[in-house]
Amino acid sequence: MSEKSDKNGEGDHMVLKMLTGSQAVAWAARLARAEYIPAYPITPQTEIIEILSEWVRKGEMEAIFVQMESEHSLLTAAGTAAATGARVFTATSSQGLLYGFEMLYSIAGWRAPLVLVNVARALAAPITLEPDHNDVLAARDSGFLQFHAESVQEALDFVLLAYRVAEDNRVLLPAIVNIDGFHLSFTRERVDLPEQSTVDEFLPEYKPVNPIRASEPVAKGIPVLIPPLYSFFKYQMHMASRNALNVFREAAKDFEKMFFRSYATVEEYMLDDADTVIVMSNSFAAVGKQAVNAMREEGRKVGLLRIRLFRPFPTDDIVKSLRGKKCVVVVDQNISIGKGGITCPEIAEALYHLEDRPKVILPVIAGLGGKSISLEEFRHAVRVAERLASLKAGPDGPLLLFREDEAMLVDSLLKIASGG
Amino acid sequence: MSITKYRTLKDVPKEEFLVAGTPLCAGCGALLVIRLFHKALGGNVVWVNAAGCVTLMATFPYTPLRSSWFYTAMPSAPAGAQGIRDALDILIKKGKLDPAENLKVVVITGDGAASDIGLQSASGAIHRGLDFFYLCVDNEAYGNTGFQASSLSPIGSGTATTKPTHLYPAGNVLPKKDLFEIWRSHRPPYVATISPSHVVDMLRKVEKALSFKGPKLFLALCPCPTGWGIEPSESVQLARLAVETGIWPLKEAVYGEVTHTHIPSKRRPVEDYLKVQRRFAHLFKPIKNEAVIAEIQKQVDEYWSKVER
Amino acid sequence: MRLSDAPILERGHIFNPSYVLVTAPSLLFDPTVKPLEGMADGSVLFVNSSKEVQIVQPKKVHTIYRDITELALKHIGRDILSAAMGAVACKLSGLISLQSLVDSVEEELAELGLAADLIEKNVQLAKECYSSVESISLRGLDYKPSHKVVEVQYMGERGIPDLLSMGNTILRKTGSWRVFTPIVDKNLCTACGICYIYCPEACISLDEQGYPVINYNNCKGCLVCTVECPRRAIKTERETIWS
């Protein structure tokens, strides 16, 4: 299903299509003229590589598609190819991301820009298929930039933006674009599919630094056994990642001019007069917005802040959005066992030194392994936060959201499992 | 072999691609193999390395090589080679890269990376028909971490994790994996064993391999003075003894067809090779372990009994 | 090893060493080692060398030269220096008795599985090293802190750990590893080139007539050349160039 639209009357055609998240990111790789795609199947990522392999086999993409024997090898090949000068696209998910984990740090340390789509899926054990963000957030310290998409459109756009930022010579770091499994990967949404010529204009050719060439030998990835030198290179990566904040903002400006969609590092939803702000990322933020709408109808001043760029962490923008608010409810769809959510401490640290910092920052765990989050759960979390604020008290560990109907379901399934 | 430019040691190419000053041990057999192997390969090479002793050849800010080098990770150097090969191919195909900038991609790993943690990656690359060289410098243990047993450690050898004790008088009780056969089972264009002692044989094999597109795999026995317990000066001698005792057969397989390139006319007893190495000392002192030595001899004899002359 | 009656709060890098023991003189010049850094006036430097080495000493330090390698060769027949250097450290500091030293050499080498005769040789080596130096007590070492904290600048492409200077290990003078030096006897050499072929280090080149020329800056003294030479035309001498 597709239609042509002529948005601004200047002949700038965009094709409107109903695409799944998998299709959208495959299209983004194609539009970005990715020329190397090492791949390995894993649910729910596999559709992406199926599409790309077909396009390459039909000659519709001028690229090499190679099916590797593991994600570890996939990431190794992706990294060395990017260091050699090819524009690389790849995708994985969950266990696959973890299987290749050491290479995330290596690729980032090689300063080899490429784009990896992670189709979020919760981690074993117990093994499961539906999403949460423990997989992608496990990679948060690696040096990869991280873009978290809420919609299929964002999934496509973030791949393009990710190339632009990653390959910028002020950054030179690889990027992960996270799309939630099932909710984005297998769900069709309306997508403005950009014109190739506009993408070409937005995304200049990748100019690798010190690529491997016969005429200019180079040694890459070699041990740095001298501690100050090691520290130096790690600091350089950090500063390059911090540079990516402004590089992203520049790129987003160009992107808006060319594609009429505007992206800040964070999205503010009904935030202006909000007393309580729910912080989320990725596709379930939509459910959070729905809850905000419902609570607004009840007269509660609730808003939502969605983090698009998780690495580099957009501290300044988060501060702008959250300073002066009464309560912040950080809904983490992940769990650091024995501590709580991963995002919440990062938000708290960003706000700590402000005079007008929120009175309560409530850590909430929800939606693990694809568990739904109902309106009542959001409402409960907001109520808990507001009560703490009125009591001038702090939270007693993270709030684990779970419903009665779910508890009953669990109970019935445990009975079956135990034969009782 | 038919036409070759390597007839005698006088034909060894003079150009050096490896300079002195590496931090590798004195008398390192692997270093000698790399140096000679590179001479036969010629220039325009990128080495793709997995963790092992030779990783220390290039440590920031030094490298002994005049060629490119890419340290990847212990399990996945062949995958790293895949990425480089494919990137060069697509860039050349798209006209973004002058074909004169092309490189020969050579994986260099130790035996642990080749036979244990990196076997999957190697199998994948060979299966895909990747156009690359693989040089495994086999010192028969994890040398870089202090000489622990790998699956290419020979039976009867003492290593840091297979120390001979009264319960395990033989030291290592597991047999050496036959990596040559594992590689050969993929039917790549070229597989060979080489030895730093038999230089003309090595050069001819590299020369031959250069004529094939696809995986070209080399397994080199590399005496390790520190791990084997030999004098650095004896390094090449030990490699020669391994060939002369028949422990290290020199052979090649072209698309799976095996030819022995050197058949020792009269094989020396394996004892001559074993008794000069500290890693086998427990087989001789305090009492001679005749059974293990005989077993090693038997395996060698059985191997050669099947080789057609 | 960390040992004291009071808790030791130093870990890792020792900023202000009282005693510095250098196993090979070349390390004094290695930009990645810098063993003299942080030494105060009155501290002690021990160098394993038969003669004095020209070094720029930032401070007035007691410098002692002894050829410990020679002693190791005498007792063990190999340049294994751990017991020897340990013994020197024990004596210099004046903190550890000869008996404690002997006990620990025996204990540690037995743990490593060394044969009894080899342990005994190491003990003899340790004893001779112990008696070869005098204890030097330290009084009132004046350490001047010289560390300033600076801001790290973003270096762009230079901040990427790629190496562009190829073949530069030649700068590392591994010649100092040598215990014995190979020397070509021109009268016996037939210019067959075999030593050149088998040198693992590419330290032998051939001159116009095909005779070998050894790069002593980098030759580690593995002596493969002496064994491989069919005419036994390469002799060995105890290393003197570096020590």
Explain what this protein looks like in three dimensions.
The complex is a heterotrimer of chains A (420), B (309) and C (243). Chain A has 2 domains: 258 residues, 3-Layer(aba) Sandwich (Rossmann fold), CATH 3.40.50; 141 residues, Rossmann fold. In chain A, helix 1 packs across helix 2, helix 1 runs parallel beside helix 7 and helix 7 packs across helix 9. Chain A contains 14 helices and 17 strands. Chain B has a single domain, classed as Rossmann fold, CATH 3.40.50.970. Chain B is built from 10 helices and 8 strands. Chain B has an 8-stranded mixed beta sheet with strand order 2-1-3-4-6-5-7-8, with helices on both faces. The longest helix of chain B is centred in the first third of the chain and has 17 residues. The relative contact order of chain B is 0.13. Chain C folds into 2 domains: 114 residues, 3-Layer(aba) Sandwich (Pyruvate-ferredoxin Oxidoreductase, domain 3), CATH 3.40.920.10; 66 residues, 2-Layer Sandwich (Alpha-Beta Plaits). Chains in contact: A-B, A-C, B-C. At the A-B interface, helix 3, helix 5 and strand 10 of A face strand 2, helix 2 and helix 4 of B.
Quick structural gist:
The complex is a heterotrimer of chains A (420), B (309) and C (243). Chain B is of the alpha/beta class and 309 residues long.
Mean pLDDT of chain B: 97
- At CATH's second level, what is the architecture of the largest domain in chain A? 3-Layer(aba) Sandwich
Using the coordinates above, name the CATH class of the largest domain in chain A: Alpha Beta
Q: Report the radius of gyration of chain B as a whole number of Å.
A: 19 Å
Biggest interface, CB < 8 A: A-B, 44 and 49 residues
What form of chain A results from the Cα inertia axes? globular
Strand numbers in spatial order across the main sheet of chain B: 2-1-3-4-6-5-7-8
CATH class of chain B: Alpha Beta
Helical coverage of chain B, percent range: 25-40%
Annotated CATH architecture of chain B? 3-Layer(aba) Sandwich
Low-confidence sequence ranges of chain B: none
User: Reading side by side through the largest sheet of chain A, how are the strands ordered?
Assistant: 11-13-12-15-16-17
Question: What global shape of chain B is seen?
Answer: globular
CATH-defined topology of chain B = Rossmann fold
What is the tally of helical segments of chain A?
A: 14
- Gap between N and C termini of chain A: 51 Å
Q: What Rg of chain A is obtained from the alpha carbons, in whole angstroms?
A: 22 Å
Secondary structure: number of strands of chain B: 8
The termini of chain B sit apart by 15 Å
Classification by helices and strands of chain B: alpha/beta
